[in-house]
Amino acid sequence: MYGGWGENKMQDLDSVDMKILNMLIEDGKTTLKEIAEEVGLSTSGVRRRIKNLEDEEVLKGYTAKVDPEKAGYDVAAFLNIDVKSSEVRRVAGILKRCTGVCEIHKTTGNHGLIAKVRAKDRGSISEFVEDRVSTYEGVKDVDITMTMETYKEDLLNI
Question: HTH asnC-type domain spans which residues (predicted)?
Answer without folding.
Answer: 13-74
